[in-house]
Amino acid sequence: MAYDYFAQLYDELMNDAPYDQWLDFFYRTLNDYQLPSAKVLDIGCGTGELALKLKRDKFDVTGIDLSENMLAMAKEKAEHEKLSFPLFQQDMRELELGSTFDMILIFCDSLNYLETLDDVKQTFQRVYEHLNEGGALLFDVHSLYKIHSIFINHTFAYNDENIAYIWESFPGEEEHSVYHDLTFFTKTGQDLFTRHDETHYQRTFDIETYSFLLKEAGFQCLKVCADFTNDPPTKTSERIFFIAKKNS
Fold first, then answer.
1. What is the spatial distance between Cα 64 and Cα 86, in angstroms, rounded to a whole number?
2. What keywords does the record list, in alphabetical order (predicted)?
3. Contacts for 171-179 with beta carbons within 8 Å, 24 or more apart?
């Protein structure tokens, strides 16, 4: 589902998110593989935090997201900095922009919102068609370990003066999937809080499955690594990164 009320709180709750590490991974990949990067597409751009960093660094960047609320916030933040870049509300499975890019990014586990193998396959195919020859796709996903050992049947909480949440995770209906039940309490007056509830569903697949689907879509998988490093995944890695190049 698209982010609804959560979009209004996203930046505050993601204040410690490792955006600089995603940016560093992007630059490191460019240097390591000498990839073209004049035009960048950020899929699942959310409130535009990473896209803004790229724009400040003079990249020709475009952002897409499924959530209209998230895109509205991205636009507002860009205007505040007197920056401008295209933003589109689109489903990554049905990507249709009429232009191609040198680099396409799907970070912050956005790909985990796809529920089926066909969804992932279709997304890889649409991404491939939107890449220039020699262009690359960079994405990260939750590891199986993170889904089963960190999320499922665990509860997380956050509390400060103006906002609090309870985040409970339960097994999903499909293999390697999870439901995130989020309950937010936001201060709307003196000693008065308003409650909002959302449910998010995520699913992941093993490394071999993602690698197979990339190859099937026409990609060459250059590297699989973990947790913002160049190191191969281990049994307890939490975030798996893929670097895939469009075959010439």
1. 8
2. Methyltransferase, Transferase
3. 172/201, 172/202, 172/203, 174/115, 174/116, 174/203, 176/144, 176/147, 176/148, 176/203, 176/204, 176/205, 176/206, 177/115, 177/147, 177/201, 177/202, 177/203, 177/204, 178/147, 178/151, 178/152, 178/202, 178/203
Of 91, 82, 103, residue with least CA distance to 38: 103
Quick check: 27 and 228 in contact, CB under 8 A?
Answer: no
**The two structure tokens encoding residue 139:** 């994405």
| pLDDT per residue as tens digits for the range 133-156 | 999 999 999 999 999 999 999 999
Radius of gyration (C-alpha) of the chain in whole angstroms = 18
pLDDT digits (tens, 9 = 90+) for 81-113: 999 999 999 999 999 999 999 999 999 999 999
Burial zone of 199 (CB within 10 Å; 0-12 exposed, 13-18 middle, 19+ buried): exposed
Please identify which residue in the block is written with the tokens 């960190």.
150
Q: Are 108 and 140 in contact (CB under 8 A)?
A: yes
Helices 207-217 & 117-129, crossing angle to 10 degrees?
A: 40
Instruction: Give the amino acid at 206.
Output: D
Contacts of 136 (CB under 8 A, 6+ apart): 29, 33, 35, 102, 103, 104, 222, 243, 244, 245, 246
Instruction: Tell whether the torsion through CA atoms of 18, 61, 64 and 109 is positive or negative.
Output: negative
| Cross-strand bridge partners of residue 41 | 62, 104
Q: DSSP characters for 131-153? A: EEEEEEEEEEEE-HHIIIIIITT
